[in-house]
């Protein structure tokens, strides 16, 4: 029996937000801008370029306005929609004023992680998100991101029923998509398959974007598990950077170049140019004080090309 795989997937690049937010040394704004512009030429249709959050919470994102202003023309010219993460009304207002196309609002399914991340209970965050969508939903597209949907760093049980209820909440508010995040890279292919099958049966594949971290090396396996169910939208970070500063032990996102390589080897269309993507990875390697941990970036010269 043939294994089901989508013919085409969308890869959403998140290195400039999730990747950079966890870097301790401040990356100069012009270097972020150069990296985003390089990434924009690789063929992404959407890129999360920054977050409009409290600089006390995430100092690295303090230049969100300057970064956005500097890259917007290039993004428009390349046909890339700008996505930004916001935690509150102030963030949403700033992002709208800067011309961002789509906002991600993250709520953690785990109560402890939501408290650590935004100092609110998930219920309080849901109430807040409802207010934001009611107030700004006619001006900008909102996406609900469910952090820790595949496991909690503080040991809380995360049930599929709870994830489904929070998904329904987001869709009922008018979101077109809900992002399902394995924030700490704690899931495994069976868990991912079961959760995503449950969600797909209730809401349909087009509603979901997956966001997987590779803490234990299972992000590509989780990606395949999600695709087997029918998921066809994935976030990833060039260079494998990333991690939530408020989730203990969180490591990098699955690397875009590794996801791209896997998709290409499997004959799945992405629209991404591998050469251009690797140019951006080289720039990240030069300009950002972080280890590049992707397999493709560390590939030994002379490694055989798959036929
Ligand atoms: N942009 C810029 N500054 C902001 C802001 C925003 N969107 N939201 C709040 N602030 C500032 C406030 O002006 C205030 O500054 P002050 O102390 O100089 O007066 C400070 O941040 C704290 O604001 P407050 O409203 O009291 O919020 P808080 O302390 O309860 O923090 C959040 C709550 C949500 C604003 C903060 O925790 C946050 O930004 N979290 C984001 C976490 C994140 O990005 N995690 C990783 C991605 S999932
Ligand atoms: Zn993440």
Explain what you see:
It is a single chain. With 307 residues, the protein is α/β, with parallel strands linked by helices. It has one domain (10-299): TIM Barrel. 44% of the residues lie in helices and 14% in strands. It is built from twelve helices and eight strands. The chain has helices spanning 15-21, 29-40, 64-78, 89-97, 111-118, 122-136, 160-173, 189-203, 219-229, 256-265, 274-287, 295-298; strands spanning 10-13, 46-51, 81-85, 102-108, 141-147, 178-182, 208-212, 233-236. Helix 7 (160-173) packs across helix 8 and helix 8 runs parallel beside helix 9 (219-229). Coenzyme A binds at residues 21, 51-58, 85, 87-88, 90-91, 106, 117-119, 147, 244, 246. The site of coenzyme A has 21 residues, from helix 4 and helix 5.
**Which architecture per CATH?**
Alpha-Beta Barrel
Strand order of the largest sheet: 1-8-7-6-5-4-3-2
Shape from CA axes? globular
First and last CA, distance: 23 Å
Largest sheet: 8 strands, parallel
Beta-strand residue fraction? 5-15%
CATH homologous superfamily designation: Aldolase class I
CATH topology: TIM Barrel
Could you say how many structural domains there are in total?
Answer: 1
Counting copies of identical and different chains, the oligomeric state is single chain
- Total count of strands: 8
Which descriptors would you attach to this protein?
12 helices, alpha/beta, 8 strands, binds coenzyme A, eight-stranded parallel sheet, TIM Barrel, 307 residues, binds zinc ion
